[in-house]
Amino acid sequence: MHQLKKIEMTGFKSFAKKSTLYFNSPVIGVVGPNGSGKSNVVEAFRFVLGEQSIKSLRSKSGADLIFKGSKSLPALSRASVSITFDNSKKQFSFSGSDLEKVSLDFDEIVITREVFRDGGNTYSINGTEVRLKDVLDLLASVHIGSSGHHIISQGAADRILTSNGKERKVMIEDALGLKVYQTKIREAEKKLEKTRLNMKEVSIQRRELAPHLAFLKKQVEKIEQASIVRADLESLFGSYQKSEISFIKNKKDELHNFEKEQKETLENIDKQISSLEKVMKERFSSAQDPRIEEHEKSLASFRHAKSDIEHSIGRLEGMIQVLENQGKHVGDNKPISRNTVVSFAKDTISTIDEALSSGDSTVLKNALSHIKSKLQNLVTIEEDVVIDNSALIQEHRDTITKLNQERNQIISREQNIQSAIASIKQEKSEHESNFAESEKNYLSLVRQKSDIESELRFSTHKHEDIKSREERLNQEIKELSVLIGPSAVLPKEDAELISTEEALSTLKQKIFRLKIKLEDSGSIGGNEITIEYQNALERDQFLMQELSDIDGAILNTTTLIAELRSTLMTEFKQGVEKINTQFQEFFSTMFGGGNAFLSILTLDKKENSEDEEVISDVDKADPIIEQGIEIHVSLPHKKVKDLQMLSGGERSLTSIALLFAISQVNPPPFLVLDETDAALDEANSRRYGDMIERLSKYSELIVVTHNRETMSRAKVLYGVTVGSDGSSKLLSVQFDEAEQYAK
Predict the structure, then answer these.
(1) 110 bridge partner residues
(2) Which CATH superfamily is domain 4-175+568-610+624-742 in?
(3) DSSP code for 614
(4) Exposure check for the chain: N or C terminus, fewer CB within 10 A?
């Protein structure tokens, strides 16, 4: 039962040195003259249990809580108060799960609070520094709340009567241990408010993101369309590239094979032409046969010689005719000398023989010219030469005979030559048909060679065309690699192979149109846009999910708040009913009858309490409370029902009865009563003492009092005095000594 074990004060207010109060009795009394510092003991309780109102600690600042020094003692820089509870039954606990670092698995719980000159505060539990919130959470687990209902001072006793309905409700909730619900509601409401602000911020972010996301979506749709175009383009270009490469290779192979075949054909034609040229040369040689020329030259010479002989014969015959005519007139003329005629004849015969033997027409011609000259000389012989005409005629006739013989020889030789020429011509005639066919073949081969050479020259242009086509393909690959990426233009083995030029041309037109479409789509750099859109979309989806989560959190928090409010209301109503039972009992005991109860009323508007200076940053914001507590009393044998009409003693007894009733619903480990009996007369003091003994069965009582009746109910008394050093000191007095002191 005795959960409170001790409280230690060091440098706190008037307690300069370490001072300890041990609580090993149900009722502990604290006595001492005014100004001794006994109220500082009560304030030490308030301080260590987390009181944030400097006003409640009768100070103006945190520095006022530290011993300021005396003539014999220096001022201190800090003050500390430690309170020790029994935890052998492990009643202390945390409602939160964020204090795993603080172990409560100890038989004692020591809570310490320190304050420094600069106003700073520290809190610790069993030596581990914690937050004030953690301390309050721990204390709430044993029904020690922040409203201070477990510390009742002389002036504070009446506060529950003078407080408004909302303040009474808070005090009662705290006493009932329902503050945890209010804390949870307040935290939930803060969380709800924060969540709603977060939802607003997320909604704003999503609205701000929406236009950019819409823009990116349109861009991505274009990019997706471009991706389809790119895929089609890649597929078509793969087929086109494969077909074009195949076509170029086939063209090269065809042209190479064609040139090889044509060159081989040309080589064969050259050989045939060379052979035919030899035949043609033979034909030309046969057409200009040297034998025929030689025979014809000889024939011409013989013909000239024969002509000359015939001419000579003609002249000789003429001369014979002349001589015969001259013979008729011989007496009239002198005859020509026989020797002259003979000389002339011999000279002529010699000239003719030389000409015939040479076979040269020039020689024959010169011979005839010589003969002519001789004949002319003969004619010019003087008329007085006597010529033996008969002999001369005979001589001429002999000469003619010889000339005729020579002529016949020439004719015979002419015939032989003509026969030889005819034989040669016959031989040529026999080969003429072969020559004509060869000539025809020769001309055909020449034409064929010319055609082949022309085609070979044209094949050079074909090579250039193929090279240009190959360069154009490489340029197209380069351009497309920039447009759709290098990997997209790599040769694809599974691409469709186009078999015709017409189909390939149609395919190329499709590719060109797709390229234009892709370029117009502005899809270059689309990866960055797609990534940005994906990031924005993920961000939007994240925000949307966050909104959904926030909405769920709001719903959950709203539901939690409603459940907490409902639980709080239910337990509050049940608690008020329990308090009313105790209130009626204590009130009846105090006044010897009468009635007293609490009622729950609805408030029309929020009631605000005065702000107080605090020594930490603990949030003091209260939730909006729509209900309050009204106190109803009816004294025995009196018609007084209004609290304002009660006397001071009656008000004190009423407030004490109510506070005692409240404490009995969820008894705290201890109650501090600071001169709450100051206004009681002797009869009421006895009643007060009876209630103290009754209360001590449930909670330890620390009673600061001057009342002898109250002191008599304590088993241990602590006296507070001021030492010679100017600081407060504690003296422990047992019950018997206290009773003697009281008398």
Answers:
(1) 84
(2) P-loop containing nucleotide triphosphate hydrolases (3.40.50.300)
(3) B
(4) C
